[in-house]
Amino acid sequence: MLSGFEAQQSIDQVYAQIRNEEARLDSALRAASDDAARLRQERLNQLKALAGLKFKLLQSGALARDLDAAEQRVKGLLERARAEVSAASRRRDDAHQAILSAEAARNGCAATLEAAVRALKTFEADVASRYAADPGWLALKTELETAQNTHDEADKKAKQAEDDREKKKIPYESDPLFMYLWRRRLGTSSYASIFLIRLVDEWVARLVNYREARANYAMLNEIPARLRAHVEDLAAALTTAKQRVAAFQQEKTAAAGGAPLQKKAADAKAALDAAEAEVSRAHQSFEAAEAQYRAVADNGQKGVYAQAIDLMVENDSRDDIATLFREAARTKSDEDRAIVEKIDQLTKGIASADRQVGQLRGSLSEAAQRRAEIERARAEFLQRGYNNPGGGFGNEASIHDVLGGILKGVIQGAVLGQVMQQGYRGPQSGWGPRDDGWAQPSDWGGGRSSGPVFPGGLDDGGSMGGGGDDFSTGGSF
User: Fold this and answer.
1) What's the pLDDT band for 154 if we cut at 50, 70, 90?
2) What sign does the CA torsion over 370, 371, 374, 380 have?
3) What is the rounded distance in angstroms from the CA atom of residue 250 to the CA atom of residue 258?
């Protein structure tokens, strides 16, 4: 069985691995972008060299001055972009380190709590054996068992009624005439219409046997709602019974001298909650730093870098540049040929670098999506209280498989929540020492119900009446 704390650590590890992958991809993207920019700058230099050989094009000096100005402007734009991205990257890295530090502190608090709970559990086990035959305890035990069984049976009947409703409502809702009259509220005090329309509605009602069908359809919807409301009332009674049992256990434990152990465990839980809150704040700070970095980096890629690239492309498309190439092709000197070949190589290198930049951007976007999914799964994990001591997961292999799939990008993060919900086993409630040894299930809160405490072989119950599958209103269904 995988404990809640171990499951949380596994989620944190996958988050860290994805974050490391993001950092690697981001570093590669920055390097590829710089490489593409460097190649473009080198191409400008080669164009200047080629123009220098063709002195006729440089008589006015306009081309040389323009190329020099373009080179200097490109250099300034790229240096500014690199500085801004570097500063934002450092802030993001610092925020990630804060997450790691907060998680390390949280893990220490969790270990302290587990040790405190184990000590309390051992003490409670000894105390429980002393009051096993206590009449007050036996009465509370019976009360809790009765409340649990009553709740479970009512919940089963409510679910059966809800399932019946979903199946049996189909013929009603498939008949457009019946649903027209139902939405018009015919047969109720809220129905209102002029005489002629009322006359037509009444005629349609007789045609589809609406009066009888309406009563059955109304009952079909009302019975599950009433049963579910009853289950909610019983759930409140069950919670009260659990709290009474917990209070009895706590009182007996304290009377036997366990108050210091209880306080130690409570203090450890409070410290863990505070540490977990710090982890959450660290994650929020990182997300803010990540958003700031992405804004700066995207601005660099789409703004400053784009300006530099556009400037270089603009110079490539100048008429005098085209003339320069034609002149080089006409004269075909060795120097011309060497520079033109170099420019061709640089052009191919730029195209290759641009393709790599595009691929890296796609990979980085996909990694960021996986990190966001893990972050959502982590938030749900905490919201459901899966990290509370005593709880755990019986499907450890499935959880690790899903985490591995998320890490590889073949499984979405939402699947993790479903698998954990299916395999979670919460701290036992009831009497005697529980898995977590703690007699205060209501104090820790935030956790989901762990299911029936006293699972029994209840029958499935009968199906609900009020409109069977073979019912017909006489309309289109």
Assistant:
1) very high
2) negative
3) 9
Name beta bridge partners: 392.
3, 425
Nearest to 321 by CA among 349, 348, 347: 347
Among 11-15, 67-71, 327-331, 473-477, name the most confident range. Answer: 11-15
Examine the pLDDT at 326 and tell me if it is beyond 70: no
Q: Where exactly are the structural domains of the chain?
A: 2-444
For the ranges 224-233, 435-444, 448-457, the maximum mean pLDDT occurs at 224-233
Question: Would you list the DSSP string of 355-410?
Answer: HHHHHHHHHHHHHHHHHHHHHHHHHHHHHTTTTSTT-EES-HHHHHHHHHHHHHTS
For the beta sheet containing 392-393, the strands, ordered from the edge strand earlier in sequence to the opposite edge, are 2-3, 392-393, 424-425
151 within 8 A of 157, measured Cβ to Cβ? no
How far apart are the C-alpha atoms of 175 and 252, rounded to whole Å?
63
Position 353, amino acid:
A
- For 145-209, the DSSP string reads HHHHHHHHHHHHHHHHHHHHHHHHTHHHHT-HHHHHHHHTTTTSTT----HHHHHHHHHHHHHTT
CB atoms within 10 A of CB 183: 8
Structure tokens at 187: 């047969």
* Alpha carbons 385 and 166: distance in angstroms, whole number: 32
User: How many Å apart are CA 241 and CA 235, to the nearest integer?
Assistant: 10
- Give residue-wise pLDDT tens across range 237-252: 999 999 999 999 989 9
The model scores a pTM over 0.70: no
All residues at 6 or more sequence positions from 436 whose CB lies less than 8 Å from its CB, including other chains: 117, 121, 388, 389, 390, 391, 427
What six digits make up the tokens of 388? 């509370």
Q: Any idea what DSSP says for residue 455?
A: -
DSSP assignment letter at 58: G
> Residues 351, 354, 360, 362: what is their CA dihedral angle, to the nearest 10 degrees?
-100
Which of 213, 180, 207, 167 is closest to 471 using CA atoms?
A: 213
DSSP label of 57: G
Quote the CA–CA distance of 155 and 149 in Å, as a whole number. Answer: 10
Secondary structure class of 392 (helix, strand, coil): strand
CA angle centred on 429, ends 426 and 433, rounded to 5°: 105
333-362 pLDDT, tens digit each = 677 678 778 888 888 888 898 888 889 888
Q: Are 240 and 440 in contact (CB under 8 A)?
A: no
Query: Which pLDDT does position 54 carry in this prediction?
Result: 55
Q: What is the pLDDT of residues 260-308, one digit of tens each?
A: 998 999 999 999 999 989 998 998 999 899 888 888 877 555 555 566 6
428: exposed, middle or buried (Cβ count in 10 Å: 0-12, 13-18, 19+): middle
Q: Both tokens of residue 158? A: 């409510």
pLDDT, mean over the chain: 79
pLDDT at position 197: 87
What is the separation, in whole angstroms, between the first and last Cα of the chain?
Answer: 52
Q: Which residues pair with 3 in a beta bridge?
A: 392
